Amino acid sequence: MTDSSRFPVGVIGLGAMGRGMAGSLRRAGFPVHVCDVRAGAAAEFAADGGTACDSPAAVARACEVVVSVVVNAAQTDSVLFGESGAAAAMGPGGLFVMCSTVDPNWSVALEARLAERGILYLDAPISGGAARAATGQITMMTAGRPEAYAKAGGVLDAMAAKVYRLGDRAGNGSKVKIINQLLAGVHIAAAAEAMALGLREGVEADALYEVITNSAGNSWMFENRMAHVLAGDYTPLSAVDIFVKDLGLVLDTARATKFPLPLASTAHQMFMQASSAGFAKEDDSAVIKIFPGIPLPERKA
User: Taking Cα atoms as reference points, which of 12, 55, 15, 9 lies closest to residue 32?
Assistant: First the structure.
C-alpha cells in the first residue's frame, strides 16, 4: 500500500541494478514510474505495481525526482537530451539522480548544464551488485548541493543501506566510484589469475575455492566471482565490457595528472584481451578465459 506522504519517483534503466532499486522504492511506498529501452521491461515491472512509461520525458513529466541507472555517460546524455529526453520535460526544481560510472569532469559539467535549466542534480554512482539492489542494500557515493539532497527526501535511503555524502558539488561521488572500480577490476583480474594458476597446477577447483575463501588471500571479488567460474556460469551480472569501460575511465583520470597506475593498467589489458577474444558480453569473471590450457569447470545442469 502506498504511503500518502511518498511522492512519485522515476527510474530510468531497469537492468540488474535499476530493476532492484525500483523495487526497493516500491516497497518503501513510493509510487514508481519506470522506462527502459528494452521492450517489455517496464511493463513487466509495472505488472507488480508502478507505472510503465514509454520515454524518459514521460517519466519526468510524472515525477519531480528521476533516478537514472544506465550504463555510461553517452546513455545518460541520451536519457536527458535525446529524443523524448527527460531534461526538457522536467520542471524547475526537479531532481536528476545520476547513478552511472562516468568521468568525474563530465559529471561536474552535467551539473552545470542542468543548473541552467533550473534542474537539481546528484552525482550518485552505486555499488553492491544486483542482489543488494534488490533488497535496498547498495552503497551510494553521492555529491551535490544541499537543496538536491533536500529534494531527494527519503529516496536515497529507500534504495541504499549506505549513502555517503562526499561534497556539496558534483564530482567527488564519481571520483570515489572510479577508485572503487580500480580496486574491483584489479581484484577480479587477480582472482582469475590465481584460480587459473591453481587449475593449471592440477588443484581441484572446489578445494582451492574453499581454502582461499577461508584464508588471508581471500577478497570479496574472489569469493563472489570465482563462484561463477566454479558453476561454469558466465551469465552477465556485470559484463567484461563494463570493466573495459570503467578501468578505461580510471586510467583516463590518472593520465590527466600523469599519475601511474601499473596494476590498473594490467587489469585493463586483461579485460581488453577477454573482450577482443569474444567474451565482451559475458560475466566479468570470464576474464579467466584468457589463460590458455586450463581445465575450466563446465556449467552445472
Answer: 9
> For residue 53, is it within any domain?
yes
By annotation, the residues acting in catalysis are 177
Pairing state between β 65-68 and 9-12: parallel
Residue range(s) defining the domain that contains residue 255: 175-290
What is the per-residue pLDDT across 234-291, written as a single tens digit (0 to 9) for each? 999 899 999 999 999 999 999 999 999 999 999 999 999 999 999 999 999 999 999 9
Q: Count Cα atoms within 13 angstroms, Cβ side, for 38.
A: 12
> Residue 295 above 70 pLDDT?
yes
Q: How far apart are CA 101 and CA 117, in angstroms?
A: 23
Vertex 228 angle, CA 225 and 233, to 5°: 145
What distance in Å separates the CA atoms of residue 138 and residue 160, rounded to the nearest whole number?
5
The span from the CA of 162 to the CA of 242, in Å, is 23
Q: For residue 1, what pLDDT is reported?
A: 41
The CATH number that applies at residue 279 is 1.10.1040.10
The residue among 33, 56, 52 whose CA lies nearest residue 42 is 52
Tally of domains in the chain: 2
